[in-house]
User: What shape does this take?
Amino acid sequence: MFHGSFAQADFAEAAAFWGESKTVTAPPLGDDFSPARVDGARIVAAHNKWRAELGVPGVAYSKKLASSAQAWADQLKNSHDCNMKHSGGAAGENIFWQSAVIWSDGRRELQQVDPKAVVDAWGSEKKHYRHADNACAPSEMCGHYTQLVWKKTTAVGCGMAVCGSRDQIWVCQYSPAGNWAGQKPY
Assistant: This one.
């Protein structure tokens, strides 16, 4: 049984998100940034865009899953220094990590990450998924994508935590869970 996989955004991808240059031009978030700012409506809209491409029913936002995802993001922050590790719970799960902006003088600043960019990072694995044989292309990941579009999944909830390093960890949990061995996502 497999319920998800990890994704990691690198600095170049984040820079490309903010504009043409390799310099991040968006202002960093302040220390008052709250994980409660995870926008459930944007999360759902981003998920449902990928699902609509396949004619798969949309998902709804679940406060219960969001609470669980937030608790796991906080656990990863507090006990695992923002290293990605699955919770092992009954829900499906995708995890995303984003580094801080690291300046030449060693300062670290929090990057602004749009929830849509998190979901789109997972969705970008679509190019590695081969539906005919229900497998990822050799040496590629596609488990985030398949969880994202898992037809039987009806709900998603997400959380995010910022570590002392100013790195951040995003967790989305899904119910019912997807990525069951031997089953196609749609």
